[in-house]
């Protein structure tokens, strides 16, 4: 049973998957299957998507966990792991990020609404849950009604997924309080 099936069973959600598609490419035989789950946690709609690819060259598109906001908010936000170049630039512009805790400032790059970033980085629960994770969080477009969290290394189990949901719920609360 896939982790998306486990989640939809636990939270009484909807699960769908496409049939496995097999095709031949220049380097061999491939297979592909899309899996989707929609659940509701504490009144918030969350969808989880995964596109499995297998065969001659194994690779999987990462999980995408999408939180659907109750209305449209006029905010933009991106959080992603820092590269070496970002760390060098941050060293030169330390005054712009001095309010972010050092361990998180060294690990992630924050872009977008400064008030939202200040609220998120002062939230201990948010900080504890993103620390030492390799994740990407962004709002799609401005204005937006969705928040997308993409873990670079997938989801280990239901407990790991619930940790990511906590991050998204904290994010949702901060967006609602910023506007």
Would you give an account of this structure?
The chain is an alpha+beta fold and 179 residues long. 33% of the residues lie in helices and 39% in strands. The chain has six helices and ten strands, in the order αβββββββααβααββα. The protein has helices at residues 3-10, 84-92, 102-107, 114-121, 124-130, 158-178; strands at residues 14-17, 21-25, 28-41, 44-55, 59-60, 64-73, 77-81, 108-112, 135-139, 144-151. Strands 1, 2, 3, 4, 5, 6, 7, 8, 9 and 10 form a ten-stranded antiparallel sheet that branches. Helix 5 packs across helix 6. It is globular and about 50 Å long. The N and C termini lie far apart (41 Å). The mean pLDDT is 85.
> On the 0-100 scale, what is the average pLDDT?
85
Could you say which overall geometry the principal axes of the C-alpha atoms support?
globular
DSSP summary: helix tally:
6
Radius of gyration, CA atoms, in whole angstroms: 18 Å
Number of strands: 10
Low-confidence blocks of residues: none
Helix content: 25-40%
**Terminal-residue CA separation:** 41 Å
DSSP strand content: 35-45%
Reading the helices and strands in chain order gives: HEEEEEEEHHEHHEEH
- Largest sheet, if any? 10 strands, antiparallel
| Class of secondary structure makeup | alpha+beta
């Amino acid at each position: 049973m896939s982790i998306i099936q486990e989640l939809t069973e636990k939270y009484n959600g909807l699960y769908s998957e496409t049939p496995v598609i097999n095709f031949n490419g220049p380097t061999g035989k491939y297979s592909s299957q899309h899996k989707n789950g929609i659940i509701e946690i504490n009144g918030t709609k969350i969808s989880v998507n995964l596109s499995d690819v297998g065969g001659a060259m194994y690779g999987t598109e990462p999980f995408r966990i999408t939180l659907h906001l109750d209305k449209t908010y006029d905010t933009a936000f991106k959080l992603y792991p820092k590269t070496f170049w970002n760390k060098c630039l941050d060293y030169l512009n330390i005054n712009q990020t001095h309010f972010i805790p050092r361990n998180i400032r060294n690990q992630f790059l924050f872009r977008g609404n400064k008030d939202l970033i200040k609220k998120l980085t002062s939230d201990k629960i948010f900080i504890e849950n993103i620390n030492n994770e390799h994740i990407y969080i962004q709002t799609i477009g401005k204005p937006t009604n969705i928040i997308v969290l993409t873990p670079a290394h997938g989801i280990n189990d239901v407990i790991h997924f619930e940790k990511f949901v906590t991050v998204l719920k904290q994010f949702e609360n901060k967006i609602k309080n910023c506007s």
